[in-house]
Each structure stands twice: as C-alpha cells, then as structure tokens.
C-alpha cells in the first residue's frame, strides 16, 4: 500500500523511529475512535473508562432505553453508525447485552466521566 501524504507528513514531523513505533497502534484503531480522538482530544490518564466521549453519550442513551434508531436521531448520525457504537461499547466493556451496558453506566456514573466533563 503506498504511503499517503498524511503518513509522509507524520513521519517527517515525528521522525522515523517514533513514527515506526506509533504507526501500528494508530493503524489498528477503529475509524470512529480516531474521529472521537480528533474531535474530543485525548482522554486524561486518570479517566477510569475505556469509552470515548461519543461512546459515553451512546451508552447513556442505551441506559435510558433508547433504540439504535432513536440514538441515531438524537446524535444526528446514520443508523449504522449508532449500531457500530453500541457494538464497540459491548466489546470494550466485555458485555453482550444492552442491559449490561445500562448497568455499567449506572455503576460508573460520577466515577467514569467522559473527557471534558466533571
């Protein structure tokens, strides 16, 4: 796969060694997580949550009993994007149901605030 202009720029700015160390991690990231990182900035190291800010929003809506269709409307995203967020949340939390996501939200309210919230 040819190196993109973006990759060439990153390699130039970081240097070959740092780029080489960071690239495999970045390449393994899901696009939604990368977009969240760009829009929201990095999560603080003290955050006790594996979820991005957007995933926190989706998890809260799941906990309120919203369907994927309702989540997509609330967040103004495609239905497939809402579905993907729910699946990523399940994977990150190691749960298999929406009710388990809701239980996690209730259990972690106040202790796992998303970045930028207090």
TrEMBL record:
InterPro entries: Sig_transdc_resp-reg_C-effctor, Tscrpt_reg_LuxR_C, WH-like_DNA-bd_sf. Signal peptide: none annotated. Gene3D superfamilies: Winged helix-like DNA-binding domain superfamily/Winged helix DNA-binding domain. Residues 44-109 form the HTH luxR-type domain. PROSITE patterns: HTH_LUXR_2. It comes from the Bacteria. Keywords: DNA-binding, Transcription, Transcription regulation. SMART domains: HTH_LUXR. This is Helix-turn-helix transcriptional regulator.
């Amino acid at each position: 796969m040819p190196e993109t202009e973006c990759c060439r720029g990153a390699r130039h700015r970081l240097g070959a060694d740092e780029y080489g160390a960071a690239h495999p991690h970045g390449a393994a990231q899901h696009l939604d997580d990368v977009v969240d990182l760009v829009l929201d900035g990095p999560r603080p190291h003290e955050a006790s949550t594996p979820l991005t800010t957007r995933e926190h929003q989706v998890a809260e809506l799941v906990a309120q009993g919203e369907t994927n269709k309702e989540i997509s409307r609330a967040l103004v995203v495609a239905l497939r994007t809402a579905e993907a967020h729910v699946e990523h949340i399940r994977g990150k939390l190691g749960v298999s149901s929406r009710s388990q996501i809701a239980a996690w939200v209730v259990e972690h309210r106040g202790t796992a605030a998303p970045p930028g919230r207090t």
